[in-house]
Amino acid sequence: MIMEMRVYRCLPGRLPALMKRFDTLTLKLWDKHGIKQAGFYTTLIGTSNQELTYFVAWESLADREKKWTAFQSDPDWIAGRAKSEEDGQIIDNIVSQLLVPTAFSAVK
């Protein structure tokens, strides 16, 4: 198993729009494409309260490539993303890390 950690830093005041997009659009499309989320978090204490951090569980790099590519090219995602940004850009930058569990990890 591979865990992907993604951190989205939003433009000032745009975190609610990103969270709405995940809640009403993105997660439904992830279900359609077999993408398994493993948790979403906002920052309580840290460098920015304009961040959304989440984890996705993948079976392999090939699994990620196949499912993520299908999701990114889905016409419903392309249209929904554009609609969610009608009031302006939401995300300033995205950091993604692909992680593998250690031998002593509780999550494998």
Automatic annotation (TrEMBL):
Domain NIPSNAP: from-to ranges: 3-105
SUPFAM superfamilies: Dimeric alpha+beta barrel (SSF54909)
Record Gene3D superfamilies: 3.30.70.100
InterPro entries per the UniProt record, alphabetical: Dimeric_a/b-barrel, NIPSNAP
Name of the protein in its database record: NIPSNAP family containing protein
Organism, scientific name: Bradyrhizobium lablabi
Taxonomic classification: Bacteria, Pseudomonadati, Pseudomonadota, Alphaproteobacteria, Hyphomicrobiales
